[in-house]
Specification:
The protein is α/β, with parallel strands linked by helices. Helix content is 41%, strand content 14%. It folds into 2 domains: 189 residues, Rossmann fold; 304 residues, 3-Layer(aba) Sandwich (UDP-N-acetylmuramoyl-L-alanine:D-glutamate ligase), CATH 3.40.1190.20. Strands 8-17-16-15-14-13-12-9-10-11 form a 10-stranded mixed beta sheet, with helices on both faces. It has a 7-stranded parallel beta sheet with strand order 3-2-1-4-5-6-7, sandwiched between helices. It is elongated, with a radius of gyration of 26 Å. The two termini are 42 Å apart.
Length: 515
């Protein structure tokens, strides 16, 4: 027994939870389900799920790997009698061809990454049906052929659209090759107690976390009391980036968003965002424009609760001049290459709260002493693997190969919160804690979604959340908004404004208006 429940109780809870998930995903009446089951507990859970579907009118076919019957699975005999067991490869091929859904319950966490030939062949048949007919594929607990600890995958591992995770998350689902096989992840609660965790254990960001972090607004408050944000960015060929970041920040609740951009960009941005205010910056062709821009931004920053620095800034020489002056350091003009510059102090170092993204990160990468110079600031860095590689002095491939370790290393070395945008986005704290996004969404592989995430985090930071909470809440809210957008427009057609449109509903679902 575990947590006062028998093995049969846990299997029933798992099976019925998976059946509910399948019915929700089906969005229609009963159909034909094909279950691929193994001889262990995972196969037993699959048979219980099959029985739960059969009770609700589904026709169920079973293909067994080293299993030809219930073998102790807690399924009533009268229901099991209605199962259609497949006996030949030809029957399996035909069943894959007309199934409405295919469910993998072969190995689960006890499986291995080297699949037996018969199982690999069965999975290939199922995948062919996915290609030919769009048949949804569901994995029970973890796709068979995936290592539950490392995420290593067999070449023929089951490729799920949805993985119904039983009880507690499996680490391997969030790592390595597993993200290409697991699809969307849905946690099925079967009543197991949460395990004890240490400071170095990765944790999923949850809705309960974000509800606890979101600010409470008093009835007599006003816009400057609920978060003022200054977004610093923009160049003639990148003016969409600061616009989308500002829109995202406003949609997650920042009371006043201002944009510090070159004055020529104010017209096109203000047409799309009439609610923001502006700090007009001098254009780059005038001598000393960068230093003058830094003076203007510093003055505006004095009345802002947080800043977002980087979206669309570009990498022209004036950007270096501006950021050198703003952050309080100037690169050695004779230095060339990554990590070669020795910064000279030109004024007081920046000590505020800020999200640094995009070209702001590229500026940091050119200054090897910035962590010491900006130690008094509270920063959230939001790199993708290429940007983090430049910050750490390694290739992007090395970041991808050790994404969680790289994020932790960067947070510890820099003394700041790091958000690594890759697959399951992670938030790393300087002390070693790692918070993991609940989903990996390929639909976000489109221009501008990084700007939206940076603006979302910055909008929450401006409202008083600490850097870790702002980063993690921004990741979860952004994920929820992207999921809603993906349901509406699909994976390939999603664009960054679709995510912005989903931010307010995502926050509303977590925020009690009575607050």
């Amino acid at each position: 027994m575990r947590a006062g429940k028998t093995e049969a109780d846990l299997m029933r809870a798992a099976g019925y939870g998976v059946a509910d998930a399948i019915i929700d995903a089906r969005r229609g009446g009963p159909g034909t389900a094909l279950f691929l089951v193994g001889r262990g507990h995972n196969g037993g859970d699959g048979l219980v799920a099959a029985a739960a579907l059969a009770e609700r009118g589904w026709h169920v076919r079973i293909w067994g790997h080293e299993r030809s019957g219930l073998a102790g699975a807690p399924v009533p005999e009268e229901i099991a009698a209605g199962f259609e067991w497949l006996s030949t490869d030809a029957n399996l091929s035909a069943a894959c061809g007309d199934a409405d859904i295919v469910v993998d319950a072969v190995f689960g966490i006890g499986g291995r990454t080297e699949l037996p030939r018969a199982v690999a062949r069965a999975f290939d048949e199922a995948w062919q049906a996915r290609i030919d007919r769009g048949t949804p594929m569901v994995a029970l607990d973890i796709p068979s052929g995936i290592d539950a600890d490392t995420g290593t995958a067999d070449a023929h591992a089951f490729r799920a659209d949805l993985t119904a995770v039983i009880g507690l998350p499996k680490l391997g689902l969030y790592l390595g090759e597993a993200v290409r096989h697991a699809g969307a992840l849905l946690l099925i609660d079967i009543g197991l107690p949460a395990p004890e965790t240490g400071a170095s254990d990765p944790l999923l960001v949850t809705e309960a976390d974000v509800r606890a972090w979101l600010p409470r607004r008093a009835a007599d408050t006003h816009k400057r009391q609920v978060g003022t944000l200054l977004v610093v960015g923009g160049a003639p060929n990148y003016y969409g980036a600061p616009r989308m970041a500002a829109a995202a920040a406003a949609r997650v609740g920042a009371g006043l968003v201002s944009l510090a951009v070159p004055r020529s960009l104010i017209g096109p941005i203000s047409t799309a965002l009439p609610e923001v205010t502006f700090v007009p910056l001098p254009e780059g062709e005038f001598g000393g424009a960068g230093s003058r821009a830094a003076e203007l931004v510093r003055a505006a920053a004095a009345s802002a609760d947080a800043l977002l620095v980087g979206p669309g800034l570009g990498q022209d020489p004036i950007v270096d001049e501006f950021l050198d002056a703003f952050f309080g350091a100037r690169a050695n003009p004779q230095s060339i290459g990554f990590g070669a510059s020795r910064a000279e102090v030109t004024g007081a170092a920046f000590t505020g709260r800020a999200v640094v993204d995009a070209d702001g990160l590229n500026w940091l990468a050119r200054h090897d002493n910035w962590p010491d110079r900006l130690r008094g600031a509270a920063l959230v860095l939001t790199p993708h693997p290429g940007e983090l590689g430049r910050l750490l002095g390694v290739e992007a491939d090395a970041i991808v190969a050790r994404s969680w370790e790289s994020a932790r290393e960067a947070a510890a070395r820099f003394g700041q919160v790091v958000v690594l945008k890759h697959a399951h986005t992670v938030v790393a704290e300087p002390g070693g804690r790692l918070l993991v996004a609940p989903q990996a969404l390929p639909s976000l592989a489109t221009a501008g979604t990084g700007d939206v995430l940076a603006g979302t985090i910055a909008g929450l930071l401006a409202q008083g959340l600490d850097p870790t909470a702002a980063a993690a809440a921004g990741v979860l809210v952004g994920t929820s908004a992207a999921l809603a957008a993906q349901k509406a427009v699909g994976t390939l057609g999603l664009v960054a404004p679709d995510v912005i449109a989903g931010l307010a509903p995502a926050v509303a679902a977590l925020y009690d208006a009575r607050w």
